């Protein structure tokens, strides 16, 4: 598939997954970490306008001078921007104007992609495609949070389904030794995957299955949310202050656990992998089982033997740079490097990850209290 075809396919996919939204859904921001769908659609468009068309197409005229201010996310080198908590305050521009913006940029990008491009330009366009795929996944996190915190638990059309875990866990043994870590090919990767290096691992065993809802209910029923011995001090404070007693979207209804999914309010399926877990909860569960979470290096080495992709999997590794990590100059250097503090690494992919977007070396990262992403638990002993 050509770069142009991949660009158009990615852009069209975002419009298609928004088709069942109501106009009222597009601008809502119920929490500071949630971005409205309208903002995602415009921000991913601004990325191509800012870093490709404005930079490399001499005759390009920006769609609207205000949009860089409205839809820049965190790129300080690209200028001032609306603060993240205020994204939901913008009823203007309208949804229709945002789609006009997408069409305008797509028209110019289509023409530009037919020209002879420098390798530097191709690399930035590829980054833009990958960036938009990230936002398509974030869209699912955000729309689920938007709809899942409404009284009637509305739904959208989707094909998002987790698969039941029908077999008992097997434990895969990984031998002690020196292993290669990081991206080491000519295919696309983010800068945080680079710095191919060796790590020494002690022998360990890793489960070939994610933790199920049934196993997590056993954890809840044991009184784990009331047992401070299982928790990091910060995690204990977090669940106490926020009165957390179960995963995100879980509700006790008529004596049984139910959960909100994008397909509605349903009784918890005991055979599905537990979803929407914070790092704090994943760590406490591992403590309760007298096991632990894998490090990101253990996960990467074991990934060749794992059938992963249902949920992002918490690791016990802080998000830090690899050896010889270096940031790109300017705004694009802000993409990953400046977030390498106070975050934990997740590995794998989820059912809302765009097909082909992840790989064994992919390093996702979130603050340890975050639960709205599609995240689960795999254990090591």
Strand-helix topology:
Elements: H1 3-17, H2 37-56, H3 67-71, H4 95-113, H5 119-148, E1 171-174, E2 177-181, E3 197-201, E4 204-207, H6 213-221, H7 233-241, E5 250-253, E6 256-261, E7 264-267, H8 279-288, H9 296-302, E8 312-318, E9 344-348, E10 364-366, E11 375-376
Parallel strand pairs: 8-11
Antiparallel strand pairs: 1-4, 2-3, 5-6, 6-7, 8-9, 9-10
- The assembly state of the depicted protein chains is single chain
In the CATH scheme, the class of the largest domain would be Alpha Beta
Distance between the termini: 43 Å
SS-based structural class?
Answer: alpha+beta
The residue ranges in which pLDDT falls below 50 over 5 or more consecutive positions are none
Sequence of secondary-structure elements: HHHHHEEEEHHEEEHHEEEE
How many helix segments? 9
> What gyration radius follows from the Cα positions, in whole Å?
21 Å
The spatial strand order of the largest sheet comes to: 10-9-8-11
State the share of residues found in helices, binned by percent.
Answer: 25-40%
Going by CATH, the homologous superfamily of the largest domain would be paralog of FGE (formylglycine-generating enzyme)
Q: Which second-level CATH architecture of the largest domain applies?
A: Alpha-Beta Complex
Number of strands: 11
Hey, roughly how much beta strand do the residues contain?
A: 5-15%
Average pLDDT for all residues: 97
Shape: globular
Q: Give the CATH topology of the largest domain.
A: paralog of FGE (formylglycine-generating enzyme)
């Amino acid at each position: 598939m050509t770069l142009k075809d991949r660009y158009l396919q990615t852009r069209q996919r975002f419009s298609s997954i928004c088709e069942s939204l109501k106009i009222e859904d597009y601008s809502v921001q119920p929490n500071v970490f949630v971005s409205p769908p309208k903002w995602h659609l415009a921000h991913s468009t601004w990325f191509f306008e800012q870093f490709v068309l404005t930079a490399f197409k001499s005759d390009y005229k920006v769609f609207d001078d205000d949009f860089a201010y409205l839809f820049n996310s965190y790129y300080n080198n690209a200028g001032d921007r609306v603060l993240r908590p205020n994204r939901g305050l913008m009823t203007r521009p309208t949804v229709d104007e945002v789609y006009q913006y997408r069409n305008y940029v797509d028209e110019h990008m289509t023409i530009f992609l037919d020209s002879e491009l420098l390798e530097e330009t191709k690399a930035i366009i590829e980054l833009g495609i990958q960036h938009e795929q990230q936002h398509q996944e974030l869209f699912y996190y955000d729309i689920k949070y938007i709809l899942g915190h409404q009284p009637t638990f509305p739904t959208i059309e989707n094909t998002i389904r987790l698969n039941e875990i029908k077999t008992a866990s097997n434990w895969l043994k990984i031998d002690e030794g020196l292993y290669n870590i990081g991206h080491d090919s000519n295919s696309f990767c983010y800068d945080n995957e680079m710095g191919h290096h060796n790590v020494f691992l002690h022998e360990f065993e890793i489960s070939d299955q994610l933790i199920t809802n049934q196993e997590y209910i056993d954890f809840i029923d044991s009184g784990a949310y009331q047992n401070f011995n299982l928790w990091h001090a910060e995690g204990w404070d977090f669940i106490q202050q926020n009165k957390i007693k179960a995963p995100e979207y879980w509700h006790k209804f008529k004596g049984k656990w139910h959960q909100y999914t994008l397909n509605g309010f349903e009784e918890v399926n005991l055979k599905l992998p537990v979803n929407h877990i914070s790092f704090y909860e994943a760590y406490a569960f591992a403590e309760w089982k007298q096991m632990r979470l894998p490090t990101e290096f253990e996960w990467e080495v074991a990934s060749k033997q794992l059938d992963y992709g249902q949920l992002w999997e918490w690791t016990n590794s802080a998000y830090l740079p690899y050896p010889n990590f270096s940031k790109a100059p300017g705004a694009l250097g802000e993409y990953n490097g400046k977030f390498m503090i106070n975050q934990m690494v997740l590995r794998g992919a989820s059912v809302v990850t765009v097909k082909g977007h992840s790989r064994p070396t992919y390093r996702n990262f979130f603050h340890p209290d975050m639960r709205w992403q599609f995240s689960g638990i795999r254990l090591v002993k």
